[in-house]
Each structure stands twice: as structure tokens, then as C-alpha cells.
Design a protein that fits this description.
mainly alpha, globular
Length: about 180
């Protein structure tokens, strides 16, 4: 029941948004992230709620307090850990976020970030395959950022998560521009 409420909450908050370069409704991404976690054997309700809501603070007008009020402090805390600074800001802010996540973030936040990034890489792979040269450079930069931002989080993650991330990276690599 809580997961259905979180899914409905996320769908409502992401209403009108779509994935980059496609007509796919944005809410499909958080659902895929939650499904990936389930495939990895994750059954913790708060972790799955956070998967369904991991982008609501970052990409909508939703506040952490909104998440806390609807789903509790632990789900809010995980969503906050998954809320990265805007990538267009100074690189130091982004580097600092990933350093804090690696050094201080709870293992569940690491797992969520790996699931999120794995799904993003798969979506980008499909985008590049569909659009050819149009997104290759951007995809290559995203893949490069994944190497220093998210791959270190996988060192202590369950093997299913590590394999999913590394496989998604390897599958995208031949499709992007080098460098």
C-alpha cells in the first residue's frame, strides 16, 4: 500500500515531464529503479519508496519536508542523499556531493544511486542507438562522470548492483565518442 502511494505521489509530481530525447513519461524511470532494486533482492519498504521518489526533490517543486510528511524521516533522508546539486553549478559542488555520498552516505543511498545511474545509462544507450550522432558526445561525458561519481560507490555494494552498473557502462562505451 505504501509503495502504491509513493508511486502515485511520484507520478503526480513528475506529471508532464518526459525522459530526455523521448516521449517516455518521466515516472517510468523511478519505477524502473525500484524494479531493479527488487531484482537485486531489496525488500526494504523505505528504500523502495526512496527509489520511487528519488528525483522529486531534485526535479520538481517537492521539498524534503513533503516527502517526510507523506513517507517518514528515513525515506526523506534517502531522497535527500540522492538529490545531487545541479550539474551546471561549479564542479566543486558536484565533486563535494559525490565525495560526501561516498564517505558519509548510508549503504542504502549508495545502492539507490547505483540503481539510478544504471537505469540512466540504459536509457542513454537506447537514446544513442535511436538518435545516432546527436547525443554521442553528451553520452560520453555522462559515462565519464559515472566513472568517478558512481563507480566508487559500487566497491562495497552487493555483487548484483556492481555487475549491473559495470555492464551498463560497458554496453554504452562503444556507442559514445571517445574522450
Amino acid at each position: 500500500r505504501t509503495l502504491l502511494r509513493a508511486d502515485a505521489f511520484g507520478r503526480e509530481r513528475h506529471a508532464g515531464q518526459s525522459r530526455r530525447g523521448s516521449d517516455t513519461p518521466y515516472w517510468v524511470h523511478p519505477v524502473r529503479v525500484a524494479m531493479g532494486l527488487l531484482q537485486w533482492g531489496v525488500t526494504d519498504r523505505d528504500v523502495l519508496v526512496a527509489a520511487l521518489l528519488h528525483d522529486v526533490v531534485e526535479d520538481t517543486v517537492t521539498t524534503p519536508e513533503d516527502v517526510r510528511g507523506a513517507f517518514g524521516a528515513r525515506a526523506e533522508n534517502l531522497v535527500v542523499w540522492l538529490t545531487a546539486p545541479d550539474g551546471r553549478l561549479a564542479g566543486d559542488a558536484v565533486r563535494g556531493y559525490y565525495r560526501r555520498l561516498l564517505e558519509q552516505g548510508p549503504p542504502d543511498a549508495h545502492l539507490l544511486k547505483i540503481a539510478d545511474r544504471s537505469d540512466n545509462l540504459r536509457s542513454i544507450q537506447a537514446l544513442v542507438m535511436r538518435t545516432g550522432d546527436r547525443h554521442r558526445r553528451w553520452a560520453g561525458a555522462y559515462l565519464h562522470r559515472t566513472q568517478w561519481q558512481v563507480l566508487p560507490l559500487a566497491a562495497d555494494a552487493p555483487s548484483r548492483a556492481r555487475v549491473a552498473l559495470v555492464t551498463a557502462m560497458a554496453d554504452l562505451a562503444p556507442l559514445v565518442e571517445p574522450g
